Amino acid sequence: MKFSINRFGARLAPMASLLAALLLAGCGGGGGGTSTAATATGASQSASGTVTGFGSVFVDGVELEDARATTRVENADGSYSTVALQLGQRVRVAHDGSGSASAVTVDAAVTGAVAAGSIDTATLRLTVAGQAVQANADSSAGTLTRYGGGYTAFGDIAAGDLVEVHGSAVYDSTAMAYVVKATRIEKKSAISAVRVMGRIAGLNSTDKTFTLGGLTVSYATATIVPGATTLANDLAVTVWGAASGLVVNGSTLTLAASRVRVVNAGLADSVASGTTRLGGLVSNYSAASGSFELEGVKVVIGSATLTPTGASIANGAWVQVTGTVGSDGSIAATAIRVRQASTTDDLASVRLVGAIESLADQTSFVVRGVPVDAAAATVDASCSGVTLAVGSVVQVTASVQAGTDVVLASRVACPAAGAYTMRSVSGTAGTVDATAKTFVLTAGTTTQKVQWNDQTWFAGVTATTLDGVALVVEGYLDSTGTLIARKVRNPAVAGGRQDADDYAGTDDGSTRTWSHYRSSRH
C-alpha cells in the first residue's frame, strides 16, 4: 500500500439528529459521504435500518455512538437479552439529539429451521418457517447478503439448519406473496423460539388464525401486545412460538403462537407524529396513487424531492425516506433517496472504526470482529510512517464481497483514538470483584483492569464464572485507563466464538483463514 491521499480526519462526526420523537423498528437510516448531520433537538429520537459498520454503530451509513447503549433482542416472553451486533442485521436505535444511543434492538425477519427441499442454489432461495427468503450475490442487483455463524455463502446452508434471517419483506406480485430479501443469514446452534415478522392476511377471528406468508398462525392462546389491540388484516406483527409448536397439518404449516406483538409506524411499538427517516426496499409501488410500502409502512410520495438526479422509484429499489409521520402511521415524504447499484454508494459501504484485534500482515487484519482485505485500499496521509499492529486505531471504508466474510477495503485512515474507540484485549481473568463488577485481565506481564455493567454481553462465560478463564474483552478505556467492557467472551467454547477468530488463529489452510482467502481470491 502507498501512504497517500487526503486526510479523513480523526473520526466521522457523530450524527446530530436523524429522526424525531418516534421509536421505529425495522429498517432505515441513511448517509452521505460522511455521517449524516442535522440540527439537534434534545428529544428522544431513533434510527432504524441495517448495520453497515462499527465505530460506534453505522446504520445504513449513519454513525450512532453506542458505547453506553444496551444492545438487546426481544424474547418470546417480552423480556430482553443482551446480544452482540453483526453486519447485515436489522436494528432500531434509540438515541438523543446528538446521536448518542441508549438502546439498540436487533430485529430479525424470521428465525427458525430451513425447510426440507426448499433450498434452490440456482435462484438463491429457501424457506424458513413458511417465509420465502431470497439471498443476493450480485452487487449490481442490490445489497449483498452477509453470512455468519459458520456460513460464508449460500451454498453452505443445509436443510434443517437453524437460521436467523435479517432483511426487508418485499411483495412479489407474480407469486402474490412477500419475500424476505436477506441482508444477513446466520446459522444458529439453537434458538429460544420461532420468530416471524410480517403483515396479517386471511384473519379468521372465529378460529383465531391468520397467515404470514406460507405460515398459518394460531393465536388462540397467545398474549397480544399491546393488550387492547384488535387484530386485523394488513397489521404488521411479530410472532413468537415454541419450535415444537411449528407443525404440518396436511399441506398447512401452522405455528401455535405464544405471543403476538402488533407494530406500526415503521414497526414502532406505538404510533406518534413527528418527522422521521426510514429506509428499506420498495414494495407495492403505485404510480397512480403516488405511494408505496416500506417495511409495512405506507409512504405517500407527494412532492418529495427525489435524489440522485434521474433516479426512479420501483418495486425492489432500496430507498431512504425523510418525511412526517401521521397519527395513522403513514409517512408523508419530503425527500426520497434511491440507493445506486454500486458497492461504493454510501448505503452500500461498510464503515469500521476501532483498534486492530489481530493482524496477519499490513493488508490483512481484523477490526471490530470483521476481517479486512486492504491490499487494494487507498491509504490516508494520517497513516504516513505508521506500521499497523494489534492495537493500532484505523478507520476503514469497505464493501461486502460475495462468497467470503472478508470485506474489501477501499480506504484506510489512521485516526487518533477517541473517547469511545473500541479495542479488543485478550488475557486470563483474575482478581474478580463481583460487587464492584471488575476483574483483571492478564497476558504475560501485561495487566488490564476491566469493568462490566448491565449492558455488557457475556458469551461462553458468565459474570460468576470469570475467574481463571482465558477471555477476549471488547470495550473502551475510561479516563482512569479501565477497560469498560461491552463484550466479554470465552472463544474456547462455541457460544463465545466468533467467525473472525479463525483469522487470528493458526493459518492452517482451512476455509476461513487468510491463506485460504488469498488463494481463492488471487
List the helices and strands and how they pair.
Blueprint: E1 45-54, E2 57-59, E3 62-64, E4 70-74, E5 80-82, E6 90-95, E7 101-106, E8 110-113, E9 125-128, E10 131-134, E11 146-148, E12 162-172, E13 177-188, E14 194-199, E15 201-204, E16 209-212, E17 215-218, E18 223-225, E19 236-241, E20 246-249, E21 252-256, E22 259-263, E23 274-286, E24 291-294, E25 297-300, E26 305-307, E27 318-325, E28 331-338, E29 350-361, E30 364-367, E31 370-373, E32 378-379, E33 393-399, E34 407-413, E35 423-433, E36 438-443, E37 446-451, E38 457-459, E39 470-477, E40 483-489, H1 514-521
Parallel strand pairs: 1-29, 4-7, 10-13, 11-13, 17-21, 18-22, 25-28, 26-28, 31-34, 32-34, 37-40, 38-40
Antiparallel strand pairs: 1-2, 1-6, 2-3, 4-5, 6-7, 8-12, 8-14, 9-10, 12-13, 14-19, 15-16, 16-17, 19-22, 20-21, 23-24, 23-27, 24-25, 27-28, 29-30, 29-33, 30-31, 33-34, 35-36, 35-39, 36-37, 39-40
